Structures are given as C-alpha cells and as structure tokens.
Amino acid sequence: MTTPAPAGGTPAPRDARGTLATLHRDPRDQWPEHARKLYDYLLDLYGEDDPLPTLAAAWIAHQRSANTQKSYARGFRIFEQFAREYGAHPLKVTFPLADTFRMYLETTPTWVRVKGGARGEMIRTGPPYSDASRANALSASSSFFAYLDVVSDTPLKNPFDAVRRPVIDPDYSPTPGYTEQEWTKLLVTARDHHRIRAYRKRAYALLLMLYTCCLRVDSLLNARVEHLGDDQGHHVIKVKVKGGSWKNKPVPPIAWAALQDYLDGRTTGWLFCTASGGQLDEPAVWHLTDSLAKRAGLTPRGPHGVKGDAVTHALAKPDARPDKIQRWADHKDSRTTQRYNRRKELLDDSPGYALGADLADALTHDLS
What we know:
Layout: H1 14-22, H2 33-46, H3 52-62, H4 66-85, H5 95-107, E1 109-113, E2 122-128, H6 131-151, H7 180-192, H8 200-212, H9 217-221, E3 228-231, E4 234-240, E5 246-250, H10 253-263, H11 282-296, H12 305-315, H13 322-328, H14 334-340, H15 351-367
Antiparallel strand pairs: 1-2, 3-4, 4-5
C-alpha cells in the first residue's frame, strides 16, 4: 500500500508521510470498512501525494458508529463530486461554493441504474435529492471541515457554518407501520413460508429479536453468540447501543426459544451469520424484510421500522409505562420515544373526541 499524507494535519507535513512509511504496522490497517472504501475511492482520483484521501478516511474512522461512518462517507462523495465539477479542490472550498452546493442539491438529478446497462452503469436521471439526503450531505461536509479544524495546527474556518440546512420534521417517518396483527402475519410467513426452507429459523429468530428486544439492526447484526447469557434469572443479550455503550437486554421466552432453535447448539461466531459463517449484513436483512412482506401481502419496507412498531405497540398496552418503554428502547430522551410512537398520528386517538363528548353531554343536560 502506498502511503499518503498523515491524518493528523493539513497538506504541509511531507516528512510525516515518510515517518508513517517506516512504521512496522500501518495505522490505516485499523480503519473501519467505510473509511477504507472512501480512501481507495479518493486515492484513485487524487493520487498518493494529495492529503485528501487520508484526511477524509481518518475523519470517517473518527466517527463512533458504523451507521454514521456509512452515511457521512456517502454524503462526502456527493460533495467531492460537486467540487470537482466546479473545478475546486475539496480542501479549498469557501463559503460561496459551499452555499452553491446547497442549491446544487436542490435541483441536481440523482444517479440511477441504467436499465439493461452494464453492471454498475449509472445515469443522472433520478429525482433531486430528498430533504433527508440533502441534510446528510451538508452535515457530512460540515463535519469534515470541523474535523480538519480540530486536527490542524492552525484554526480553519468551516465554510458550511453559515449554510442553511433543510428543515426536517423529526416526527415524520415515510416508513409504513405494521399493526400487531400484521406483525403476527409477518412472523408466521418467516417461520413457515420463507421461500428457502433452510433460512426459515434464522429469519424467524431475527425478526423476533429485533421486535421483542427493541433493537437497532446494526446492534443485532454486530452481536455474537458469546454475547448471550443469563443475568438475575433472565436470558439476556449484550449489545452495543447507539452512543457506543454496552447494555444487557432481556430476551423474552418466545425469542429465546426461536434463537436456540436457530443456533442448534452453536456457541461461537456471529449471532446471525451467512451459510459460510460470515457476518450477516444490512442489505441482506433489507432483502429479507422486503421479500417476507411481499410474500405476506404487506407493504414492503426495510428493517428500520421494526423498532418504531415495537415502541408503538408497547405504548398502546393498557398498563404501558412510558418510562420503562423509554429504557427498553435505549432512548436517553422521552421525546425520542414519542417520535417512534406512530400511534400518536392516529385520528382515533385525538383527545378532542373525549372533550367533545363531555361537552355535548353537558350541553344536553343544560338544555333539558
């Protein structure tokens, strides 16, 4: 591997590159997947003498979660391509061009695959970037320059500080919610009707774990069999939750039984793995949930809506305790739990009906 500029500074220190090359082990070997991919992508464009590939990859590696790494890397690629189209090096972008990037995102068609084209062939004929995609690209770009300011010896002005971001409603979710009856139908489909019989136990156990343990997809996919155990009379799974902390989560009997049936005595390795023992990835889970939904006659969607369904259904129980549900969902703020609560959007739950009924009763008695 060739060795470009170090991640600890801006374009100047060539001598540091030489120092890095003399190390017995390359620090870049520790970079996570999305940092390595971004580095390779930028290296092909800018070459080994440009500091951008190393700085950008080190910034991605600096992020806490794999989800943030993936999201920021995707957003940064959009920014980098924009800068090249406008004849600017990403490290030299100033506010006027950063603000132009905001307007560029509002009107530029997105990339879509060419039907019948070669593998990976893309063309810009899609709709403009959504509010969420624009917000991510601007946030990623701003985060990159904030990182440069931290690691540079001299203060660096962030050109995105004054750029306006799209207004995102935190309570809005385009993901359709499933009722409890629809969830039962989905689980039965996974257990009994998955197209590939050998994968039925895995699909059933995976969905039950996501739903009954109120887990994020990445938390479950990064769990290992060694993370299962018992604590104070409960079956538990130790998972890394959002923010990077570890937590023991109780596993209900129905999910534990399905999990043990799937594991079939296996005591090591990824909890949910491929046929060859590799780690099951998110695209595979997306494909699973979409295919099962279609097979069950439900609206297809990805796995990220599972947690919202779990919170919604738990809050709808007669004896629901919002504080307990908040802890179960690993939310630091109760407002986050309510954002996951799709029941709040139901017209049937409007408090106005109860007020109106009481008022109508009072007016009836007053008139009689």
